[in-house]
Design a protein that fits this description.
Layout lengths: L1 E3 H4 L9 H10 L3 E7 L9 E12 L2 E10 L6 E5 L9 E6 L3 E2 L2 E2 L3 E3 L2 E3 L1 E4 L26 H4 L5 E6 L10 H12 L21 E3 L7 E8 L9 H9 L7 H13 L3 E5 L7 E5 L5 E3 L5 E3 L5 E4 L4 E4 L3 E2 L12 E7 L2 H4 L2 H4 L5 H8 L5 H17 L2 E9 L10 E4 H8 L5 H10 L3 E4 L3 E5 L10 H12 L25 H10 L3 E2 L5 E2 L1 H8 L17 E2 L4 H13 L5 E11 L8 E11 L16 H12 L8 E5 L5 E11 L2 E9 L1 H4 L8 E7 L20 E10 L4 H12 L3 E10 L8 E10 L8 H19 L2 E2 L1
Parallel strand pairs: 13-16, 27-30
Antiparallel strand pairs: 1-12, 2-12, 3-4, 3-6, 4-5, 6-11, 7-8, 9-10, 14-22, 14-23, 15-22, 16-19, 17-18, 19-20, 20-21, 24-26, 25-26, 28-29, 30-31, 31-35, 32-33, 33-34, 34-35, 36-38, 36-39, 37-38
Helix pairs in contact: 5-6, 6-10, 11-13, 12-13, 19-20
Length: about 800
């Protein structure tokens, strides 16, 4: 939102400069993005207003003309000009010899045999516009000889506000003026808007078929207007400072009222409207050609302004081409309406648009403003383009209008929240200056917010208003009151930070990626669809919610590899999202995932470059599980997943429940990311990893241990985990440690056969072990292996 300070001072005139005003607004929550001059610093002695006294053709160039120009000094200046719009009597900008313009200096020179003593200037040549179609044309009230900078008041400051969506009331000069008045204790001068009496009996019947979306519609016909009239310089210049270019007097008036009062308006060609106005829902598939040249296909959730035959505007967003005013228009129909912000929100973006009107209606417009805006716009139209006004048609469904709440506000709430006491009189003044109705009660006030403040609903909102207007910088710093508590975090609970620290100690770096991912890449990586699609994605490659943490980690890996990082170890902790079959609501699951690519160790002279493999990332995951009390229940079972390499993928189980996956990235998926290195990943649910192993004392046995080594032959289908589980179960409590120290495969062992060598350590807490007893237990283990797993002693 761009605000001209000179325009603002007509409403409120604080005795501070633009920089100080910008600081006050920013501290009060209306962030000022920049403060700039309204235009370049023009030399008011050499760039002046001139009036063309006569125009005659150039004898040696058909595209040039010779203009005699009165610049308020003795004698006229002869200036050669190529602008097609130069005409006798016209008042324009004249750069005299010695003036400095954008990129060059003006000097006396001969053009095709005729001396030119200056230059007639366009807006672009003065730095007032990017492009322009001819020389500037000023109002006839402009005085020849006056400096152009003075006439246009280019010393004015333009303040750019960066408003939050809840402050739609400040999308107009009047709203900002209220804020400035409150912040600076300056008088607010609200101009009186007088009613315009109807002079012609011409009106349209208005029907509200969708009152919940549009409970108030105000319209007025104005006949006998002059579309050739010129928008006054003061209005065109104010619009320019707000970022709008002048189009024609009618459009300029509607834009001016929008920037002044915050009420979007629209003007239809009255002769193109058939027998009345209907505010209704669009028909399914109904099409409407808009003013921007596009044609949109509507649905039943879209709100349109229509006549008795067709839709003529997309309500609150843009007018239709079939009812647009033109240079031939002689009768217009002005519209000002209240549209529900909930109904307009997102509708413009649905068609790839964002208009000034839709932005204001999305933020919220005062439901009582249309009548006031209509009177203001009518007066401006009659002043600029002439015409005769018809009666105002006011259609309203009062039961559908938004209601402002009555808020019981306690004195004590201010000091409780802000920590300081603000005088009652000052608090009352702030609320009243902001347009609130305030009535004193025994312990506070009964407050009714104005119709333009949709964001004030409860006591805490009022405290915020008083605090920011009084000045948060006046609130002294204080240490917060803290109540010490014990036992809030149980020792047995494993926190996410414990998991993060463990992975960091294993050499991982934490990554934080977006929860929104590319739909196509996710489907190709995970091999499944059904992702939750965003209604309003911020980018095409962020259109769905992630179903796994892997897509984000893969993008982070690619970014690192593209920047010559050869050894990458990343982890992320975050939510994944999915919608179960036949379920209406989506679910969120918190997970932790890791990724390894490159060498096992950082580069150094003492260790050869060994590439990380499946067992390296498996060891990292096991160290994570060992933090919990579930380490003994951890099992890895062969599995399959579209993202992982067949034969190098394992399901992670705890107590029979699958909690995740681990494996090597499938080469087919690897090509999607154009990565030629092996990549290993894991992902597990976080909830099962919430129980910490509480350290406890265990005495050291004073009796020696005994060790037995056995080597066994097994089929390839038999897993080492199943052998170790059976050995532990058979050996009983005497077995203190079981280690696998060799795996051997050879054709001499037989087809699809392998050899495992285990070390079994036995120890008793109460007595010395006897070799015969240990041998007996060892023989039992071997017997159990033969009977239950068909594993033979080698």
């Amino acid at each position: 939102m761009l605000i001209s300070q000179s325009w603002l001072t007509e409403w409120v005139a604080p005795e501070i400069g633009p920089e100080a005003l910008a600081e006050k607004l920013t501290l009060a929550g209306l962030e000022v993005d920049s403060v700039a001059h309204a235009g370049p610093a023009l030399d008011n002695t050499r760039i002046v207003i001139g009036q063309i006294v006569s125009v005659k053709p150039h004898a040696n160039a058909t595209e040039l003309r010779i203009c005699d120009v009165d610049v308020g000094r003795p004698g006229n200046f002869s200036i050669v000009c190529g602008a097609a719009n130069a005409k006798t009597g016209m008042k324009t900008a004249v750069a005299l010899c010695g003036a400095k313009l954008v990129g060059f200096s003006v000097a006396e020179r001969e053009i095709r045999g005729v001396k030119s003593y200056g230059m007639l200037c366009s807006a672009a040549e003065l730095g007032l516009a990017e492009v322009s179609g001819g020389i500037l044309e000023f109002d006839q009230s402009a005085e020849p000889g006056q400096g152009v900078g003075d006439y246009l008041d280019l010393r004015d400051s333009v303040i750019q506000l960066k408003l939050t969506p809840n402050r739609g009331d400040c999308l107009g000069i009047v709203g900002v003026a209220r804020e400035v008045s409150t912040l600076t204790n300056s008088r607010l001068n609200i101009p009186k808007i007088q009613k315009i009496r109807a002079t012609v009996n011409k009106a349209l019947k208005v029907t509200l078929d969708a009152p919940q979306a549009c409970p108030r519609y105000v319209g007025r016909a104005i006949t006998h207007i002059d579309m050739t009239a010129k928008t006054p310089d003061w209005m065109a210049e104010r619009l320019r400072r707000c970022g709008m270019r002048s189009i024609n007097p009618i459009v300029d008036v509607t834009n001016y009222v929008m920037y002044e009062l915050g009420q979007p308006m629209h003007a239809f060609d009255l002769k193109k409207i058939a027998r009345g106005i209907v505010v209704r829902r669009a028909g399914k598939g109904e099409k409407l050609a808009l003013l921007n040249g596009s044609t949109v296909a509507l649905d039943t959730h879209n709100l349109v302004i229509a006549d008795r035959e067709k839709s003529i505007a997309l309500a609150g967003i843009m007018g239709g081409a079939n009812s647009a005013i033109s240079e031939n228009t002689v009768e217009i129909y002005l519209e000002a309406a209240y549209f529900s912000s909930a109904d307009i929100r997102g509708k413009a973006r649905e068609f790839g648009m964002h208009t000034d009107a839709s932005h204001r209606f999305e933020c919220g417009v005062d439901s009582g403003l249309p009548l006031r805006a209509m009177e203001r716009a009518t007066r401006l139209v009659l002043q600029i383009a002439g015409g005769q006004a018809g009666p105002i048609t006011h259609a309203v469904v009062k039961s559908a209008l938004p209601e402002t709440p009555n808020i019981r506000f306690s004195y004590a709430e201010i000091s409780r929240v802000l920590g300081i006491s603000i005088p009652v009189d000052r608090s009352t003044q702030i609320m009243q200056n902001l347009g609130m109705s305030v009535a004193a009660t025994e312990n506070g006030w009964m407050v009714r917010p104005p119709g333009w403040r949709f964001d004030i609903q409860a006591q805490h909102d009022l405290v915020e208003e008083i605090g920011r207007c009084y000045g948060f910088d006046k609130v002294p710093p204080r240490m917060p009151l803290v109540q010490p508590r014990t036992g809030a975090h149980l020792e047995k609970n494993l926190s996410p930070n414990d998991i993060k620290r463990t992975l960091v100690h294993r050499g991982y770096h934490e990554a934080i990626t977006y929860s929104f991912v590319d739909a196509t890449m996710q489907k190709q990586l995970l091999g499944k669809g059904g992702a939750i699609r965003l209604a309003n994605p911020i980018a095409e490659n962020m259109s769905v919610m992630r179903q796994s943490l892997w897509p984000g980690l893969m993008e982070a890996l690619r970014t690192n590899l593209n920047r010559q990082e050869g050894r990458v170890r990343l982890f992320e902790m975050g939510n994944v999202f999915y919608r179960a079959k036949n379920a209406l609501k989506s679910r969120e699951i918190q997970r932790v995932a890791g990724l390894v690519c490159g060498h096992c160790f950082p580069r150094q002279w003492g260790i050869a470059g060994i590439e990380a493999d499946f067992y390296d990332i498996k060891a990292d995951l096991e160290s994570l599980i060992k933090l919990t009390s579930l380490a003994g229940k951890l099992r890895f079972r062969p599995g399959s997943h579209a993202a992982l390499h067949p034969g190098q993928c394992a399901q992670i189980h705890i107590g029979g429940q699958q909690i995740g996956l681990i494996g090597k990235l499938n080469p087919a998926q690897q090509k999607l990311y154009d990565i030629d290195k092996s990549i290993y990943l894991f992902e597990v649910d976080l909830d099962p990893l919430s129980c910490f192993v509480i350290p406890c004392f265990s005495g050291i046995s004073k009796f020696p241990s005994m060790q037995r080594d056995i080597a066994v032959l097994a089929d390839e289908s038999v897993s080492v985990q199943s052998i170790m589980d059976l050995v532990r179960a058979s050996a009983g409590g005497m077995l203190k440690k079981l280690e696998l120290f060799d795996v051997y495969r050879d054709s001499n062992l037989g087809k699809n056969r392998k050899s495992f060598a285990f070390s079994l350590t036995f120890q008793s807490e109460s007595s010395n072990l006897i070799s015969s007893k240990v041998d007996q237990v060892t023989e039992k283990v071997i017997r159990e292996l033969e009977e239950k797993l068909d594993v033979q002693l080698r």
